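[job 4471] stage=fold_predict status=RUNNING
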Amino acid sequence: MKKSSFLPTKITMAGIVLLTGLAGNSAWAACTTNNVFGVPVSVNVNCVAQVNTNTTAIATTNTNLATTNSNLATTNTNLATTDANLIAGDAATLSSSKAYTDGKAYAVGADTLNTAKSYTDTRATETLKSANAFTSEQVTKLETKTAGGVAAIAAMASVPQLSAGKNLSVGVGVGSYDGKSAISVGVHKRINESMTARFNLATGMGSGAKPVIGAGAAWEF
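[job 4471] inference complete, writing structure tokens
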């Protein structure tokens, strides 16, 4: 039987595997012509070698891609770990910063409050002392004036009255009260048989003393 000129001269098991496993290989498609029912009719031996080389390169590329994908997965895992560590670190830093800030704010607030309280207490004490001193001074002045006034009244009352049968009397009187003294001069005059008039002037003894004046008239029936 005569061999067909368009069939391979030798087909081994490896060749069968090669022929049936390269349907999607671009190099194999370029090296085959006259397909009948999907089976190549003519095959160039050099093309088969080229196809084998291309197939090996594809396998190497696939291996490299798998390695790259594995490396990318590892990198992603490392990035996720780094992100988690950064988040944890940020949380720790924030917590530490917050604690530090709160502590400083509390300390500053406490110092400010203590300073304000001390200032307020000092001012309140000074104000109270000043008010007490002012009140005491005013009371003392009032007591002094009152005592001087009472002494002046006592001095005016001590001036002798006009004697019966007399028309004019000039007298002097003195008085004292609560450590204050006063002197008074009085004039008593008979206007007519039924009317008399009286005038007294008194003043305290000491600095700041003010005069006291009194006058009066009487009718007799």
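[job 4471] summary: The two ends are 196 Å apart (CA to CA).
[job 4471] exit 0
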